[in-house]
Amino acid sequence: MSGLFSGTFARGGAAAAVSDAAWFDALLDVEAALARAAAATGLVPATAADAVTAACAEPAGLDLATVVARAADAGNPVPPLVRVLQAAVGERDAVAVHVGATSQDVLDTALVLLARRAITAIDRDLELAAEAAAGLARAHRDDVVMGRTLMQQALPTTFGLKAAGWLSGLDGARLRLAEVVATLPVQYGGAVGTLAGSDGSGTALRAALATELGLATTPVPWHTVRLPIADLAGALGASAGVLATVAVDVVLMAQTEVGEAAESGAGRGGSSAMPHKQNPVAAISARACARRAPGLVATLLAAMEQEHERAAGAWHSEWPALTDLLATVGSAAAWLVESLSGLRPDVQRMAATAAAARDPELAGALAEALTPVLGRGAAHDEAAAAVREAAATGRPLADVVAGRDDVDLADLLGAGPDVGEAGPQIDAVLTEHAHLTEGAR
Q: What SS3 state is found at 303?
């Protein structure tokens, strides 16, 4: 994305990895690799393959403006690109251009290469965001914060556990993307998948092409069976969901009335009308980018229904959709790095909020204390009745409970908020994260 909104929606390395220049690089890489694979299988002279490889390595020397101008005429950019390459290498070496391939072979394989390169950039930002979350989990392991369910105060937890949840999601997203990338396949089948244009060497050429590009090979083409694209869409969409969840947590905690966290960033977050505002712009932008992902995922999944040996329109719709999906997920990840790296949790504010909201914990303790005598269901109802009485009379729940002669208020309140096994769970997530980090080195 370029122009007015690119600062928000084309952030990070993924946007550059899916630019028009990057698309041309991927298309040319496929054509060069195809020429070398054809030479390796004896279909074309090595000298011709070398000429094609050399031409593809110098995009500035090719008439790519003509490719752009004529791409719509053929419905895709490969036919004009093939003609430009043939003209660049000359009649003798043109035999090594586009050997036995159809346009979809080159475009699908280029799309796979483009996705792999963009996901490398996305993964770097996911890793940095995960490291920031890990740092927050370690630093705030035991700092109490009020847990909220259905947007209402629930029971105390720790900020460390919240950050560990973020970390687990980010690491999980990285693993899912890595699994998809590891299985991305080459595409090569010729006009209708029969390899008829490869002089009996098609399957060997497909395997050689996969080796050249570091991709998986397949027993048959996947021209209209779009599982590789669906896998990419699913993993990227899931990553966007994780990024959005972390971002919205930050946005909610930074609300003025809550004030439990704030982003640091000089010169950012102001309002055009209100000079006092300090908006969590990085988290807001991460959320904005991530929210574009579900529609793009839906477009890619809807495009899976394809006719016969080549789809009329559904295949074409994938190119911009996946390009935009890679860019927007990458932008969300880049923004989240910035948000979490400068996040300042307000430990005192979190503790004060939790201390002022002991009623949920007290109600649970009352139900637990009454269970041995009344049974679990009746004890729950009794505690709920006490909460309703406190609300109806405007009295603190502690006062209502203090008036009972079957429980001791001091015992129920205990020494402080009960955060259960938050600490050990944080430690477990940090250990898993350390293993993932070590395994990647």
A: coil
